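Forum > Structural Biology > Help requests

Title: Can anyone predict the 3D structure of Small ribosomal subunit protein uS17?

Hi all, first post here. I have the sequence for Small ribosomal subunit protein uS17 but no way to get a structure on my laptop. I'd be grateful if someone could post the structure tokens.
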Amino acid sequence: MPKRVLQGTVVSNATDKTVVVRVERRFTHPLLKKTVRRSKKYHAHDEANTAQIGDAVSIEECAPKSKTKRWSLVPQA
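Reply #1:
Sure, ran it for you. Structure tokens for Small ribosomal subunit protein uS17 below:
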């Protein structure tokens, strides 16, 4: 089964080797037929501490690294 990959924006990099990424999804409301935006924050592992606040990054799911981290940064090519 392939790993899920999400795109988002870094909102915090205060902790060591960890970034908080906000992932936004858009969908049409079933009754109102209006486009709705919802976002969720994920804690992701950043081994080299390279991501800065405001960066657009991709994250992929991985084995649990800590109590809250189940995602890791995808290295940019």
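The chain has one domain: 5-73. The first strand starts at residue 5 and ends at 12.
Shout if anything looks off.
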